[in-house]
Predict the 3D structure of the following.
Amino acid sequence: MPAHACDTHMHAFGPLDRYPSVAAPRYDHPGGSLQQYASVAATLAIERMVIVQPSFYGTDNSFLLEALEKVGAPARGVVILPDTKVAPKVLEEFHARGVRGLRIDFFRMHDAGAAKSEYLKALRKAASLARSIGWHVELYAPGVVLRDLTEHLPEIGVAVSVDHMGYMKSGHGVTDTDFRQFVETVKSGQVWVKLTGPYRLSDDTDWQHADEMARALVEAAPERMLWGTDWPHIPDCGLDTGALLTRLVRWCPGNVLRTRILVDNPSHLYDYK
């Protein structure tokens, strides 16, 4: 691992008695304490990490902010904010504590049967808020939703990072043409992609489909690729994080390019000095 290697996508969870979940969370509390992650990071020589607010906590970012304080300079955060107006002083406080991104959970809207116009409205609102404080927007969305938004991503006036290679699963009605269109949009320079969660994308046990997607993205726009563990790998928390890191060598065999993905790209997007 190169010096300052960054895991751009991990989650951490606090004790339920202090940090309760949202009503009807999508999954049970997975464990995944900050102390457990620290052990994983030390073993894999991960020096920097981006703590991403999980849907489990909704818009209550209390534990994420506590985690940022505990980790300090090596950590950055991506929060989920309520739909109501957020005061500038709140954004400024979050920024001072290490937050650099605003996450949108479009899975929740998809489950509620939202129309394309509603997704676009939410995306533009988030972009305006992120722009005001110098953040980016992180998009957590089903591939069928991303497919309809792809052409609009370069137009919103702020950097966008997309989780899990776009979450474009063929079993969900997304076609190869949709994925190729997404890859072309990534080349525009406004969209970043997280090479995370291959186990989320492939129905086959060897994740061959995810490997092909990752290679295509790296080849198309290496300067916009980010890597992350997606720790603690919900819902399959028994996965080997080291094996997932080794997977990056399949997608990107060259040391120089891997250093770009692990160090240089996240340094730029997450404002590491």
Q: What stands out?
A: The longest strand covers residues 99-105. The chain is about 40% helix and 15% strand. Residues 100 and 271 are 8 Å apart (CA to CA).
